[in-house]
Amino acid sequence: MGLPVVNEPTPALFAGRLYLMSALLIVGHPRPDSFNHAIARRAEQALLTLGHDVVAHDLQAEGFDAILPGCEEPADGAVDAAVAAHCRQLAEAEAIVIVHPNWWGMPPAVMKGWIDRVFRPGIAYRFLEGDGGEGVPQGLLRARAAVVLNTSNTEAQREAEIFGDPLERIWRDCIFGLCGVTNVYRRTFGVICTSTPRQREAWLDEVEQIISEQIGPPERETRS
Predict the structure, then answer these.
(1) Domain range for residue 96?
(2) pLDDT tens digits for 104-128?
(3) Is the CB of residue 111 less than 8 Å from the CB of residue 59?
(4) CATH assignment of the domain containing 177
């Protein structure tokens, strides 16, 4: 049994306007003055400039509950209206942009909880008939591109040599790749704690370029 469909549009948080979506933007960071939020704002501006209808969620500001209740865990489990809306938006998105810091080689808890509750069976993936969950699922997401923008205080070379860049495996292989999105671009900006205002502004300009090159304008469907 599928999830309830929520038909009302959701306001984009950074632009303060109301859209029917073609792009979904999610930021997970506890401080609204963080560089992650600056990245998210610039990413949304770039999407709007390209002509996308954007739905943006600041998970921390919204108080998104990161705890997956036991009743939600089954594929046919009941979910509340807020999670149902997130599920619909994820399923409908043509492009997905994720922004969060690298904490312990993982997304922050609020972002991980969003993944647990929203990347649901029947929404993001499904197992084929006769597969009890032991096989490789079929991805269901329609997004043609996903961009993941991270921040870090670890040098890129050390991250790769010592830790193996776990966020790359998490987002490209374990999440988006498994859910049908093969065009995944990820960029980590750092080292944040030693960066200058000039460096940060250059990074924000790069965010705009990444969105333009990796996502581009929306693919509008023609209707008779």
Answers:
(1) 23-214
(2) 999 999 999 999 999 999 999 998 8
(3) yes
(4) 3.40.50.360
